[in-house]
Amino acid sequence: KRWNWILSGEEARPKDVSMEYTLASVWLPRIGIVILLAGIVFGISYSIANNYIGERGRVTLSFLAGFGLVGWGLHLANRKYHVIAQALLGGGMATLYFSSFAAATMYDLIPTSLAFALMILITAGCCAVSMRLNSLLVAVIGTIGGYITPVLLSTGQKDLPGLFSYMAMLGCGLIWVARRKDWKLLNILSFIFTYGLYFAAMAKFYDKSADYPVAMGFLSLFFLIFSSIPILYNIVHKEKATAIELVFMVLNATLYFCGAYAL
Fold first, then answer.
1. For residues 34 and 42, is the Cβ–Cβ distance under 8 A?
2. CA gap 8, 19 in Å, rounded
3. Given CA atoms 202, 205, 208, 213 in this order, what sign does their dihedral have?
4. Which residues contact 113 (CB under 8 A, 6 or more apart)?
5. How far apart (Å, rounded) are the C-alpha atoms in residues 235 and 107?
6. Percent of the residues in the chain that have a pLDDT greater than 70, as a whole number
């Protein structure tokens, strides 16, 4: 099942469909959307180098491109070109993330708080669309975008409660998804990003005399979240856990107790 997800985006290849057709129909759109995104970024960079379009125009065109890709993808979804629709949706969401980042950080056209709110809305949109269309690709892009949002929009100022609350919110959203979808790749990505951001923030900002209650409290919350996510789908749907879930839970417990001991 895991191998089929990588190759074709589905747990099992449809009957009477060759592997060559499956690979072409899935990976050519993925490669194409990457090229399209690269073209958008190159076009903006070229306009900057030659001063063809002002800053507001660049951001506006970028947002329009993102919304256009999302709209096109939704139009094609659940039809003959569903695979292409997923690629368009993923590319559109990625373009919207980039546009929000550029508007706030590169050009200072909107406040950072507004860009942060926009990225949260984009992440929520990704989750909703991925659940509606059963698209792991869109969910992965939304998850990655959600976790890199505080990194892209970081002001360099210390705000551990705000950062950890945001990460906990994403974790709670993933609990909602995990009840309905057995998307182990999504669970693994969220696990890596959550603990990665947590320990990176602690290494940079932690003050033992002031931050211990916040650090320990959120570390315990993350432990509880990732204790439930791997097996929640199995409990709801009455399926046996696999070795992947067990390794996931042991690793979660190991990181928790090592982090607690360090604190």
1. no
2. 9
3. negative
4. none
5. 48
6. 92
b/e code 148-167 from CB counts within 10 Å (16+ = b)? ebbebbeeeeeebeebbebb
pLDDT single digits (tens) 168-198: 888 888 888 888 888 888 888 899 999 999 9
Does pLDDT of 15 surpass 70? Answer: no
Residue 108 has pLDDT above 60, yes or no: yes
How many other CB atoms sit within 10 Å of the CB of residue 137? 23
Give Cβ neighbours of residue 126 (< 8 Å, ≥ 6 apart): 93, 138, 139, 141, 142, 143, 145, 146
pLDDT band at 127 (very low <50, low <70, confident <90, very high): confident
What single DSSP character describes residue 42?
A: H
To the question of pTM greater than 0.85 for the whole model, the response is no
Place of tokens 């063809």: 52
124 Cβ neighbours under 8 A, 6+ residues apart: 173
Question: Do 222 and 198 touch, CB atoms closer than 8 A?
Answer: yes
Helix segments in 77-207, DSSP class H = 82-101, 112-133, 136-152, 160-178, 184-205
Q: Which two tokens stand for residue 172?
A: 């709670």
Task: Measure the N-to-C terminal CA separation of the chain; round to a whole number of Å.
Answer: 39
Q: How far is CA 250 from CA 81, 220, 247, 253, in A?
A: 41, 15, 5, 5
